[in-house]
Amino acid sequence: MIEILTPSELDRARVTGRVVGDILRSLKARCRVGTNLLDIDQWAREMIDAAGAASCYVDYAPSFGRGPFGHYICTAVNDAVLHGMPHDYRLADGDLLTLDLAVKKDGVAADAAISFIVGETRNPEDVAMIDATERALAAGIAAATPGARLGDLSHAIEQVLSGAGYLINTEFGGHGIGSTMHQDPHVSNKGRPGRGYRLRPGLLLALEPWVMADTDRLITDPDDGWTLRSATGCRTAHTEHTIAITDHGAEILTLPQP
Ligand code: MF3
Ligand code: CO
């Protein structure tokens, strides 16, 4: 079922979205060389509590993971791209880190992810890859006008990612969001214009372009049963916002407070 939010639910989605955006911004500012991924998880937990929100991850147990996630944020370093389970690892100079966070507050969920480089060493290929996911997200959002179809968004994302030279994996993509974190419709990062569900005001979508430098194949980390890594060990990037379709176009809900 595809949920359409009422105006008052949309107001609550704006609050949840702001919580997610603010937490991601604070966490990014606290990450430095030597920061342990488990500390980031602890900080995320504290900030979620302080905001009066609840984690969408800690009890999450879908078919694609081994048991409940048991953590508050996804931390994906270098070859890890999605569902990165926090573990005892200290960030090194030049690491490419993705933080992905979803919380629920007053009955409405929001989900966002950012990728960035830790420390001073900025590999130009990493910078370009992060930039491609950010531009793809912007293109998807720009295409999300009321009356557009899902295929238009998917195609806009695809054009940017493949235009930048990346292969696209279609096993995981964006999704509807609302009273739960993951719901219909699925939003592929590849698609045909003019096809699929027609967007309408009140629909919430999480758009999440992600790529791997030289492959479209994923492997699941055998130790934690959750973390998805590039099959070749290459680096990866992922950027995500939750947006609301309104009469006037897409509104980004997961931006931090200006
Ligand atoms: N937030 C992720 C997404 O963008 C899902 C993470 S599920 C987790 O869809 F439980 F692994 F964290
Ligand atoms: Co998501």
From TrEMBL:
Keyword Hydrolase on entry: yes
Cofactor notes: Binds 2 divalent metal cations per subunit. Has a high-affinity and a low affinity metal-binding site. The true nature of the physiological cofactor is under debate. The enzyme is active with cobalt, zinc, manganese or divalent iron ions. Most likely, methionine aminopeptidases function as mononuclear Fe(2+)-metalloproteases under physiological conditions, and the catalytically relevant metal-binding site has been assigned to the histidine-containing high-affinity site.
A Pfam family reported for this protein in Swiss-Prot or TrEMBL: Peptidase_M24
Catalytic reaction(s) noted: Release of N-terminal amino acids, preferentially methionine, from peptides and arylamides
Residues given in the record as substrate binding sites: 83, 182
Residue intervals of the Peptidase M24 domain: 14-247
Residues binding a divalent metal cation 2, per UniProt: 111, 175, 208, 240
Top-level enzyme category: hydrolase
Gene3D superfamilies reported in the protein's UniProt record: Creatinase/methionine aminopeptidase superfamily (3.90.230.10)
Binding site for a divalent metal cation 1: 100, 111, 240
Record flagged with keyword Ligase: no
Keywords for this protein: Aminopeptidase, Hydrolase, Metal-binding, Protease
CDD domains to which the protein is assigned, alphabetical: MetAP1
GO MF annotations, alphabetized: aminopeptidase activity
Cofactor(s) the record lists: Co(2+); Zn(2+); Mn(2+); Fe(2+)
Record EC number: 3.4.11.18
PANTHER family reported for this sequence: METHIONINE AMINOPEPTIDASE (PTHR43330)
Function recorded in the entry: Removes the N-terminal methionine from nascent proteins. The N-terminal methionine is often cleaved when the second residue in the primary sequence is small and uncharged (Met-Ala-, Cys, Gly, Pro, Ser, Thr, or Val). Requires deformylation of the N(alpha)-formylated initiator methionine before it can be hydrolyzed.
Subunit structure comment from the entry: Monomer.
Alphabetical list of HAMAP family matching this protein: MetAP_1
Similarity remark: Belongs to the peptidase M24A family. Methionine aminopeptidase type 1 subfamily.
Designated name of the protein: Methionine aminopeptidase
